[in-house]
């Protein structure tokens, strides 16, 4: 079955461009469009998309609040949110990830990256672009813990190896890269990541990365 996508952006020209790219793919169907967050909520309820391609800055209701309502505990359907950002202006991206977005993508990303991001998010995985993730978290370092605060008690539920894996996830490494770094198999890494998410009550790798920074386990700019 085709992946059902809802396009949310206040610029009609951008929505048209995204539609042309996505409708060229046999496994993706654009089921609707919205020009702001309020319209997006209505469209999600009416159309039940699998993925919402969500702009951040929009009139009436921005993408952060819309994401929070779409992915919150009283959500109406299974929609995942992929946030669109211009990066250099969007200080709300981390807030959107915290609100429940499954990842983010730059608006000027190549067409193949947009298509791949839609597929990744639809499959239930997080779209965590390593280089952009590092830059985003470094950019907002002043809003994150300095590393001097005590670590939260929830971290003590993790084993030493799970803490290692969480740190590497936060730095944007893929399962294959983590496996190479720790000299274990990818299957083992997937198991560790699953345990981390379960123990910390997190939905995906994106939330795990944000948690690691917010808790002070990983400090922006550190290697």
Automatic annotation (TrEMBL):
DNA-binding among keywords: yes
Annotated positions of the 4-aspartylphosphate modification: 55
SUPFAM superfamilies, sorted: C-terminal effector domain of the bipartite response regulators (SSF46894), CheY-like (SSF52172)
InterPro entries in alphabetical order: CheY-like_superfamily, NreC/VraR/RcsB-like_REC, Sig_transdc_resp-reg_C-effctor, Sig_transdc_resp-reg_receiver, Tscrpt_reg_LuxR_C, WalR-like
Keyword field contains Transcription regulation: yes
Pfam families membership: GerE (PF00196), Response_reg (PF00072)
Domain Response regulatory: start-end pairs: 4-122
Designated name of the protein: Response regulator transcription factor
Species lineage: Bacteria, Bacillati, Actinomycetota, Actinomycetes, Kitasatosporales
Domain HTH luxR-type: 151-216
Keyword field: DNA-binding, Phosphoprotein, Transcription, Transcription regulation
Biological source species: Streptomyces violaceus (Streptomyces venezuelae)
